[in-house]
Amino acid sequence: SFPKSKIKVLLLEGIHAGAAAAFRKEGFTVEELKGSLSKEELVEKMKDVYVLGIRFLFCVFLFVLPLTHT
To answer: Of 3, 28, 45, 53, which residue is 20 to 30 A from 22 by alpha carbon distance?
Structure first.
């Protein structure tokens, strides 16, 4: 199985600290950002991210996900 420590979680827009703590407790690598990212910044960040946590629904899937993990 893929090691959890190699799975990077990106939490944007001030996701509750408890979420980050829960991921870390399970052994995931977590990066937290208080704000949002531009489409270009998000594409760059997602190159090594497997889990994305955001507070507000927006069209990530249509614009970003096809450009990542290629």
So the answer is: 45
